[in-house]
Amino acid sequence: MCDKCIRLSKGKGIGGTSSWQVSGYKKKSICEKCGYKAKHSAQMDVFHIDGKLKNSSWDNLKTICANCQRLLSTDQFKWRQGDLMPD
Fold this sequence. Notes:
Elements: H1 3-9, H2 19-22, E1 44-48, E2 61-65, H3 66-75
Antiparallel strand pairs: 1-2
């Protein structure tokens, strides 16, 4: 589940601050998977490489577009530390 869905399932609503925001990570405007250039920050998501949403070290975070996020979630790709593309 994405950060928003997890907060909703815990009854915390959509607002709040995610762990990657607390760590100081900033979303990029370019997808680190496909190279898409976003016109609005809502088109970009923060992807946790190891799948653990509480692990917000910057080497575990990638900025990806909403389309790539859906594909990664659906196809259950694995992304290793240091990879630009999933295996």
